[in-house]
Amino acid sequence: MTHRKILTVLLALVMAASVLAACDGRGKTENTYTVTFDLDGGTMEEETSATVEKGRSLTLPSPVKAEYEFGGWYNGETLAGLAGESYTPTADVTLKAKWTNDPSALYGEENLARAVEYAKLIRENYWDSETKLSSLTPEGGAPYLWPFTEQVSMVNGILLCIDETHADYDYFTEYLEELIEGLRHYRVREVRVGEGQSWNNPGHVLAEFGRNDGTANSYAVYNSGRNDGAIDSVSAGMDGVFFDDNVWVAKEFYYAYKNLGRAEYFAEAVNIVNWIIGEGYEPTKGLNGIYWKWSAKFLFEDKPGGGGLDDNNHASLNACSSAPTAMLLVKLAAEMDNEEFGGKYDGLKDDFILKAQNIYEFCYSELLNPDSNCLRDKIFLAEGFKEMTNRDDQIQLVDAQELPYNTGTFMTAGAELYDWFREDSSLLADIYRERNEKVAAGADRKFANGAVLEGQYAYNTNSWFTSFLLEGFMDLAEWDENCATYIEHMRSSLDYAWKNNRSEDGLVSPAWIEGWSYFNDGNPNSEGNPRQILLQSANAHCYAMLARYYA
């Protein structure tokens, strides 16, 4: 062997020895660090150790552990990072997974799965995709406007929780579009004005669906009953049109716009609210409330047969029409500056906010019970009240009934007004916040009944009423930490209902704690039947709202 070959071989051996000295069995060198992952009982798809070149980083893996939430990778007591974050080691290190057994970490996913399953069941049993008509119960019957609208609310609620990446996104966007067409079976093309009745605004225009000219004269009206044939074709008398029904419809068009981004849905919501303000708003002597029934605002006689005051036959300003109108006015105003509208609604925005404030004050001053801090149902107006000067004479009676949906929508209205004014550090914002916290505490005391079943809270057995209470608490929860407790009361009840009070066909009792035995209505088509669409859609909507809150 020549000296050159010997030298070459020796050099190769030295280099090999150098590499071996700098490496371990896993390929580690002096220029690398080893990161070891201690899963502490968890699992993950990635390897439990990784070799990283000095100065380089790795992406921290995402482990899982049944019934636990992953809280991050820790180097001793120091957080190294969360799953998906970048981490640069400076030495060999063992990172330990930190887990929490806070069950709330699972509530979002759990309730979304329930909402999706429930809504699919409702679509299968209540909805006809060909006719775009719904049944009142799985057994049949035609729902009035407001029971039907809650089905739309359910789907909007789910879409607020998911995006295009969700496996069921296309399913629910299609469902929502079908429901929107279904709503149009209730849309009025002609209003029949009866004797002694009249429009407040003779300049109104019953607009084409989704068309708005940017003025307060562009109206849309929905009847309580539907036309099973053509859409947008109902001919209705004022007796069949309700201001509260229409505000629920407008609310769902607003959320359909938020979910699908279609300007015509926003325009339709504005048209409906224009009609509510134009025809149902009563500013006389500073009352500033919203009537309940269009025709009843012209009636001041006692109910025939000596039945006394009745809001079907006597003028009344109601919480169920006033509070949600105030809420929706602010929601719509907050969207009017969007570039896509090109300033179209600039002439409406300020008036919407002013009307919202006025209506809110009506609810607070005239309907709020200072003992419970919850809203009473309505006030009746005395005959000739427009000409009266004495408030005691003009208001005949306050209906003392307190229902959760009135207080719930009042909380949401207050939350919207607080959000509107708080950026300016306005004194008004402080007032709204103080009132909201007071009302939320009162609502939990009033409507969460802990005496029915130990460890649980029972609510009004009309789950649609109660759904607005949950929504109100959620809207305040960002800055009222007490609302987390109130929401937990409701989550626990809904969880109990899912596990204990489901029927064989998968429906949940609207009496979440009491169960199906609470109801004794044998009429399958009755609106008091627990299987009717209003209550069942409200149940599913509640699970969707919980999913959004806990996510």
Can you tell me about this structure?
With 551 residues, the protein is an alpha+beta fold. Among the domains are: 1-29; 31-100, Immunoglobulin-like (Sandwich). It has helices at 3-22, 104-126, 145-159, 169-183, 243-260, 263-280, 319-335, 346-367, 391-394, 404-422, 427-447, 463-476, 483-500, 533-550; strands at residues 32-38, 49-53, 58-59, 69-75, 78-81, 86-87, 93-100, 127-128, 133-134, 188-192, 205-206, 218-219, 234-237, 281-282, 289-290, 316-318, 368-369, 374-381, 395-402. The strands form 7 sheets. A 5-stranded mixed sheet has the order 2-1-7-4-5, with no helix packed on it. A hairpin with a 2-residue loop joins strand 4 and strand 5 (78-81). It starts with a helix and ends with a helix.
Layout of helices and strands, plus pairs?
Elements: H1 3-22, E1 32-38, E2 49-53, E3 58-59, E4 69-75, E5 78-81, E6 86-87, E7 93-100, H2 104-126, E8 127-128, E9 133-134, H3 145-159, H4 169-183, E10 188-192, E11 205-206, E12 218-219, E13 234-237, H5 243-260, H6 263-280, E14 281-282, E15 289-290, E16 316-318, H7 319-335, H8 346-367, E17 368-369, E18 374-381, H9 391-394, E19 395-402, H10 404-422, H11 427-447, H12 463-476, H13 483-500, H14 533-550
Parallel strand pairs: 1-7, 10-13, 11-12
Antiparallel strand pairs: 1-2, 3-6, 4-5, 4-7, 8-9, 14-15, 16-18, 17-18, 18-19
